[in-house]
Amino acid sequence: MSRPELIAPPEIYYGDTEAKKYTKNTRNQQIQADMTYRALELLNLPPDEPAFLLDIGCGSGLSGEILDEEGYIWTGVDIAPSMLEVALEREVEGDLFLQDIGQGFGFRPGSFDGAISISVLQWLLNAETSHPTSSPPHRLARFFTTLHSSLRNPSRAVFQFYPSSDDQIQLITSIAQKAGFGGGLVVDYPNSKKAKKMFLCLYVGGGGGAQQLPEGLDGEEVEDGSKARFERRREREKNKTGKRKGVKDKDWILKKKELYRKRGKESVPRDSKFTGRKRRPVF
Amino acid sequence: MVRLITHNLLACHVKGCTANNFPLEFKDVQVVLRESEFNPDFLRGFIPKIDWAALTGAARQLGDTSLPDQLPEMLDDDFLKTLHHVLLEIHVEEGIMICPNCKHNYHIANGIPNMLLAEHEIG
To answer: What is the ipTM of this complex?
Structure first.
């Protein structure tokens, strides 16, 4: 798996072309949408109150669009100007900020009813300069402490991210705990290499009693019709009886012979009733 | 797309700038009005979070004086509609937001405020 966060910092990696490519890719859209719905499910907001959410690393607004659809009012922050430009073109409803989350937020305490973040945290794990404020632990600490204060008590923040090692998970969760968050990691489909998804579920407050961490999804990953690939082609290959059609049957032989004759090849056997007929079993 | 709803939550986050860093003052603004869906339930839930003095101050800076000085006791539909207009339909497209304490300028371009800090300003 190639890791874009190892190639360049986000505001450079997601330049104009990459931002457009990322947003147009339907597979990307599908994955982002699935993860946003799952993150909202984990956020577990009260159903009949329209909430005010923070979308951390909103990018071109793929997740924001779903927040719009679900009737949430939201604010998005991202560091890549090109991505935000695409978001403006797509006319998402939320307010957008150009902000480096590693520098912390300036929101007033208790501003948001929840926060989601899809595929972002891994970008905080690389140091871009040698300045002490750009070391990953410092940036993570600043991010989590300012986020903790800007969330309402009680509320939740859900981060989907792609850690590349257990050490990274350890680092992120320990800093989040130091910042005052409760909660932990929820892993969906832990046994699948492709469908495995990590969600960091963080709680603000909780009123003494520990909030129960939700179960990760397990078992067979759901493949609905829109997702399964090559389904049609396999269908076509089967004939009505359910048997696969033979590859080198009579039709194929006749077609080949016709082709050879057209090309002027000599000694092509003539067609007869024995052409392509099955031989009797010898034994 | 800076609306007053987010402006009302936004304080300066420069290193060491912790007191009197809210609300940010507008300067040289260009305002655009865009209609949006009226959602009274959301507004009722959001009112406790609003810093009323900051909201009316900011609205006056943008040339809207429809809000009363004090938050009224009775939340009738007319009031909620005015509040909805001020909070969610006034978009600041261009301009500068200035921190009253450290005078840091946050430039707004294309409706997106630039909240990036220089290295020495990071807390």
So the answer is: 0.89
